[in-house]
Write a structure and sequence with these properties.
The protein is mainly α. The protein is about 80% helix and about 0% strand.
């Protein structure tokens, strides 16, 4: 189950990076991207807070599935994460098209 979890997380992560790049902001660590996305897109009201929660949850699930001794992520969880990643991407595309 680790592959779809990782792909969903990285889809959201790269979208967050691209959105920050639009503001000429670059970070070398995942935590920097997570925090800056929250600061520049969630706290400002550009995006709903659920997108930040999804990004952080996907990161936690990716870490667990990649490095945990037991995989606690079900196929249902993986499908839900993929749906969230798709919505995250679509929301970012709508935002970028509008600016």
């Amino acid at each position: 189950m680790d592959f779809p979890i990782g792909r969903a997380y990285y889809a959201m992560f790269y979208v967050a990076e691209a959105l920050l790049e639009e503001k000429e902001l670059r970070y070398s660590k995942h935590g920097g991207v997570h925090g800056a996305f929250g600061e520049h897109y969630i706290k400002t009201g550009i995006f709903d807070a659920k997108y930040h929660r999804w990004l952080l949850n996907a990161f936690d699930q990716r870490i667990e599935s990649d490095y945990g001794l037991e995989i606690k992520v079900s196929p249902k969880d993986a499908i839900e994460l993929q749906k969230q990643a798709r919505e995250f991407l679509n929301k970012a595309q709508e935002y970028l098209d509008a600016i």
